[in-house]
Write a structure and sequence with these properties.
This protein has about 475 residues and is α/β, with parallel strands linked by helices. It has helices at about 5-10, 40-45, 75-95, 110-115, 145-155, 180-190, 205-210, 215-220, 235-245, 250-260, 315-325, 350-360, 375-385, 390-395, 445-455, and strands at about 15-20, 20-25, 30, 55-60, 95, 125, 140-145, 155-160, 165-170, 200-205, 230, 275-280, 285-290, 295-300, 340, 370, 400, 420-425, 440. It has two domains: about 5-275, 2-Layer Sandwich (Aconitase, domain 3), CATH 3.30.499.10; about 290-460, 2-Layer Sandwich (Aconitase, domain 3), CATH 3.30.499.10. The protein has a five-stranded parallel beta sheet with strand order 5-4-3-6-7. Strands 17-16-15-18-19 form a five-stranded parallel beta sheet, with helices on one face.
Amino acid sequence: MAKTLFDKVWDAHVVKQIEGGIDVLYIDRHLIHEVTSPQAFAELEARGLELFRRDKIVATPDHNIPTENQHLPIKDALSRLQVDKLLENCAKHKVELYGLGHPFQGIVHVIGPELGITLPGRTMVCGDSHTSTHGAFGAIAFGIGTSQVAQVMASQCLLQSRPKTMRITVDGELNKGVSAKDIILYIISQLTAAGGTGYFVEYAGSAIKSLSMEARMTICNMSIEMGARGGMIAPDQTTFDYIKGREFAPKGEAFEKAVAYWETLHTDADATFDLEYNFPAADIEPMITYGTNPGMGIKIKGTIPETLGLASQDSYHKALNYMGFKPGESLLGKEISHVFIGSCTNSRIEDLRVVANYVKGKQRAAHVQAMIVPGSKQVEKQAIAEGLDLILKEAGFELREPGCSACLGMNEDKVPAGAYCVSTSNRNFEGRQGPGARTLLASPLVAAITAVQGKIVDITEFLN
């Protein structure tokens, strides 16, 4: 029987099928951080349960941590409590922890791939919605709730209903200045923020296959922003080359044996999906969002639509009022005061290289605060080794220490109320980057050019 990539990985991890369409799914790797793990550890202790397979868990603090002076005690009391609790729980239960100062510390969805913990064919979960990032390797990866975090800790399994499958194909050559972030923002703008609800998405086509692993991670990361359960891309030589030699990846003969299996992880030619979409790469241009969900995006040269096709226009106008925009308006020339380059979506070395390559020899606009936060200590170390830190500093950009930072208002890196921030993160909800903050999602290249120009521009006019 012909199978999709999703079917192959899912079926290989079903321990037992329960009446009513529920599967007991085995989980290969469990990633935890300081926000959703304390309650799970407390639940296990309250019920007298032990961690079933602690060697399958990896922990790191990322959401609440400051991105300056990480060697000092955390100032915010709640953030300090959560991070301290993670350290305490990991020590007590003998869980592998990459804490502040550790060379492997970073955003949980950045360190998994770069350490070789994320591998094709694996099932991976984390108490964080953007776990879908790891699907770029041909893994089934998805976010779970706190009670499910406890369930995996206790049994290494989850009770799951099998989602429907969707394939999104992007074929052709990408236009000048178009990146993976533009691809996924375009797709979400076409399908809406609810267009993938109930589905696990496979991304395919020549444009997807041409992307680097960092770019593929960006696309899978934002699958959740169209309501999907997760996203996947079939592993290929690009995948194998990225994995080879990483800290916890298979070595030598074990690696060759693993590749032989990974090469089978592709959708069979005659397999069918519950739903399919096809997008020509030529239709995709540099993108930017204008509203308060990731589906409210336009081509950067476009105009805000008169309607979003919602059942009620009240929420649409509420979003525009919050953002200070009007239907039919162009964003070109709109002055911004903040630029944030980071998050689990766009904080890898490739993203920092794109920014440094553009800003070299230039200066950020005087009224713009431009903050760059690497996704991990390894990314930070590599950026310094390549001299990117000096290029960014000379251009007036601030390179911080690793963490989730201004992606979300759970730490000190907040955008002021009413201020516009062009951000490479994944969400533009009301108050996401701080109470009253106005977020415009874009690619690292768009963010870099905006920081230099001090306003939103047609970036194609600034590319050589």
